[in-house]
Design brief:
Strand order of the largest sheet: 1-3-2
Structural class: mainly alpha
Number of helices: 14
Strand content: 5-15%
Radius of gyration: 35 Å
Order of helices and strands: HHEHHEEHHHHHHHHHEHEE
Length: about 475
């Protein structure tokens, strides 16, 4: 592992202004980020962009989005009254904090450009702002192919080794992010989440971001066990003395070094790459086992939580239904549900009631104990009957029938449009979504959105029932 030297740390802090990160913590941080992202889009394919063009673009954007003129600069003496003045004020604040630089191509022409550190920071912020992950880049195969091309091509082995090292670094970050997100949703399951929230996190985070984009590729077309031994064998070949000498010469020429110890620096860097690659692929099985164990913990906990919630809803619903049916029946005894109590008003005499004399219990006549033989009642038949009733009500056939009735001949219907009259229809809708998303139904399939919607008294994820099977 390479540690930063003291001089490098000082150079980093001297490069970035002291107030650089203040805009990310100010009360107008959302506005600043929107302007930075728009500047980055305007400079796509350019080195700089005209300040006047930026001001006009921001002015139109503020008008279209309804952003009102306001004072945002810390030391602003003149009140901002127009959208153009607001655009100028934002640019001045970004320049003051070091995010942009004003370049003068000629005395009357101001151009805006990003400093190097700000350009990289904007790129990082835009990447973090994306709601979903980038497509998986087959990091394991890229590492293997770069190492193999370096050996067989006989061209520049150092460039091949460096490219393989960078791909492995990206893979390591992907695995770290995957475990972090698994741990996050596992901790959320431990909290008091609703069934809708659990299902939403399962499909949006676990299924889409973790399984589809990372774990599935790592176990199929970019399988680590498939390439692991080949990569380690190629790394042994790169460690041979003759090849090491060639890579040292290649790196020295590439970096155009003039120092007397350039060979030692190059050799140390090459050896660090080889050691890190070898250590990573030797120990990668342990990282994958850790992720698989966390995945199993999450699925077990989430399924158990959903089953518990559904059982609780059924039990509560059954108790309420029984109570309502009993009170509506003709032979219902209202006294079984009521407790009668005497009451009176507080007066001056009520605080001084005379003490009552309790009768002597020894003089009270003893009542004979009515000893009756208790009969054992088995609940197995009742439980079995209840199980069959629930299985029949929410069977796959009934779920498909309910969804088709809701479609009613239409091509699709959203979770917001479904008629949810009671808990039964809500449970049938959720089970239909699970069947349709898992391709268990031959009549329809399900596509999930990215938001929560309210349908009557129920809140659930946005999804669409679409008639017919999903094209594979």
């Amino acid at each position: 592992m390479r540690l930063l030297q003291r001089g490098e740390k000082m150079n980093l802090f001297s490069m970035i202004p002291d107030d650089f990160f203040k805009i990310l913590t100010s009360k107008h941080k959302t506005l600043y980020l929107e302007v930075l992202f728009m500047l980055d889009d305007l400079m796509r394919g350019l080195i700089f962009v005209s300040r006047e063009q930026v001001v006009e673009t921001l002015q139109n954007y503020f008008l279209e989005t309804g952003i009102l003129p306001m004072n945002i600069e810390e030391e602003e003496s003149v009140e901002v009254k127009t959208h153009r003045a607001l655009a100028q004020s934002v640019l001045r604040e970004l320049e003051r904090k070091g995010w942009i630089r004003i370049i003068y191509e000629n005395p009357n022409d101001e151009q805006i450009s990003f400093p190097r550190y700000a350009n990289r920071m904007v790129s990082v912020l835009k990447e973090l702002e994306k709601s979903d992950h980038n497509a998986y880049a087959r990091y394991v195969f890229t590492t293997y192919s770069n190492l193999k091309i370096g050996i067989e091509g006989g061209g520049n082995e150092w460039m091949a080794l460096d490219a393989a090292w960078k791909a492995t670094q990206d893979l390591q970050r992907v695995l770290q992010d995957t475990y972090f997100e698994l741990n996050e949703i596992y901790n959320e399951i431990l909290n008091d989440l609703s069934t809708n929230d659990i299902l939403s996190r399962h499909f949006d985070v676990y299924q889409n971001k973790i399984i589809d984009q990372v774990l599935y590729p790592l176990k199929t077309n970019d399988s680590i066990p498939r390439f692991k031994q080949s990569i380690l064998s190629l790394l042994d070949m790169y460690s041979e003395e003759a090849l090491m000498e060639r890579m040292i010469n290649q790196q020295v020429k590439k970096d155009n070094r003039k120092e007397h110890d350039e060979g030692e620096v190059a050799a140390r860097k090459i050896q660090e790459h080889l050691n890190e690659l070898t250590d990573f692929y030797s120990d990668i099985s342990g990282m994958l086992n850790l992720i698989d164990h966390k995945t199993q913990e999450y699925t077990t906990k989430s399924i158990g939580k959903i089953q518990y919630r559904l059982r609780s809803d059924f039990q509560l619903k059954g108790t309420i239904d029984t109570l309502i049916k009993y009170t509506k029946s003709a032979d219902a005894d209202s006294s079984a549900f009521l407790e009668w109590h005497d009451f009176g008003l507080v007066s001056q005499e009520s605080l001084y009631t005379p003490r009552t004399v309790k009768p002597d219990i020894r003089e009270k006549e003893r009542l004979a104990v009515n000893r009756q033989k208790m009969t054992t009642v088995s609940d197995k038949a009742v439980v079995e009957k209840l199980r069959k009733m629930i299985h029949q009500k929410f069977s796959g056939q009934n779920v498909d029938k309910f969804v088709l009735e809701q479609l009613g001949g239409k091509d699709q219907i959203s979770s917001k449009e479904i008629l949810l009259q009671d808990y039964d229809s809500f449970v049938l809708t959720i089970m239909g979504a699970i069947r349709g998303h898992g391709h268990h139904s031959q009549c329809y399939h399900v596509v999930f959105g990215k938001e929560q919607v309210r349908n009557g008294r129920f809140e659930l994820p946005l999804f669409y029932f679409i008639g017919g099977q999903k094209d594979v």
